[in-house]
Specification:
By secondary structure, the protein is an alpha/beta fold. It is about 30% helix and about 25% strand. The strands form 2 sheets. An 8-stranded mixed β-sheet has the order 6-7-8-3-9-10-12-11, with helices on both faces. Strand 4 and strand 5 form a beta hairpin. Helix 3 (about 110-120) packs across helix 4, helix 3 (about 110-120) packs parallel to helix 5 (about 155-170) and helix 4 packs across helix 5 (about 155-170). The chain starts with a strand and ends in a 17-residue tail after the last strand.
Length: about 325
């Protein structure tokens, strides 16, 4: 498989000034992560709110500038400062679907103008060709081409997200960063949008970076999944491997929190307690040790590295309990 996107030691730190300090502190939103997305793949990024998922996606499309690290798209480093023409070229290949389908659409423009705008900016086609392209895009996402003259407020939430998908497809990109695109929608509408995205992936030969906190949604759509906590990836594995054998205590807690479709089923695992530490001053050692029921002395001192589990290069875990030098492997309670 050919890598389409490679992220290496990506960091995004935001400066903040605290009243108790003269020097600026930094919010370590993303603090040194590595992952690869292959052509035609859907790569999931999951974790609690505030773990750095959305910031990672925005750094890839250059909505925020990385503080350190490198991002390679199709072999080209896009983390470096880029000229206007280079950013414009990047936008043709990497697009973004926002979480809120209403605030991401200009209420003063008709749907046709919203979808057509990327084509105008990039100088693609004349007026008639653009009109035909817009009609096809609206049809492909399940909307009538006759609605091109309507405004966003005339559509439902699910329809507005379809418009956002059509706009992202306008330039025929290779990679789309999806920032929780169904979290604001009803459950029945979520299924429709997810099935639409799977269909469009085959039709347009797309790769997705799918950001979500809903593991059920991620399981339905993604091929590989990375679990983030406090700006770091703590586990990365294929979908089947992660759901059958979650090895990091945080991944275990996330899976245990998935509701069961049985009102009489009892929860055998204790819910995760405590809050995520401040990204301004993360704890030493393992970032999860303050909430981990398996934590021991080493976890409070040494930060674990993301290493293969049992020699499996496709299943990486950052946990001292899983590393071979500890002499033990973490087992999940059944």
């Amino acid at each position: 498989m050919n890598p389409l996107l490679e992220v290496k030691q990506l960091k995004v730190h935001f400066p903040v000034r605290l009243k108790s300090q003269f020097r600026p502190a930094y919010v370590r939103a993303v603090d040194g992560i590595d992952f690869t997305i292959y052509k035609g793949e859907t790569f999931g990024l999951v974790g609690e709110s505030g773990c750095g998922k959305t910031t990672t996606g925005k750094a890839i499309v250059k909505l925020v500038e990385p503080s350190a690290g490198r991002i390679f798209y199709d072999g080209k480093d896009i983390a470096r400062p880029m000229k206007r023409a280079e950013r414009k070229e990047l936008a043709r290949n990497v697009q973004f679907i926002f979480q809120d389908p209403f605030s991401s659409l200009d209420p003063r423009l008709t749907v046709g103008k919203i979808v057509e705008e990327p084509l105008i900016i990039h100088g693609l086609g004349d007026a008639e060709e653009r009109r035909k392209t817009v009609a096809k895009l609206l049809t492909d996402v399940g909307l009538s081409a006759d609605r091109a003259q309507s405004f966003p407020h005339e559509f439902s939430g699910g329809q507005r997200q379809r418009i956002g998908v059509a706009r992202a497809l306008a330039l025929n990109p290779s990679l789309i960063v999806c920032d929780e695109p169904v979290s604001a929608l009803d459950v029945s509408v979520q299924a429709q949008i997810l099935n639409l995205m799977k269909t469009l992936q085959d039709s347009y030969n797309l790769s997705y970076l799918f950001i979500s906190h809903n593991l059920a949604v991620v399981k339905h759509l993604c091929d590989r999944i990375a679990v983030m906590y406090l700006g770091k990836i703590v586990e990365l594995a294929g979908k089947q491997s992660l759901f059958e054998k979650p090895s990091h205590p945080y991944a275990e807690a996330l899976l245990a929190a998935i509701p069961l479709p049985d009102p009489e089923a009892l929860m055998h695992d204790e819910p995760l307690e405590g809050d995520m530490p401040s990204p301004i001053k993360p704890p030493p050692g393992c970032p999860f040790h303050t909430r981990c029921k398996y934590a021991f002395a080493r976890c409070r001192i040494d930060e674990p590295q993301l290493l293969p589990l049992d020699g499996d290069a496709d299943h990486l875990v950052a946990c001292h309990l899983c590393h071979p030098d500890t002499g033990t492997i973490h087992k999940i309670k059944k």
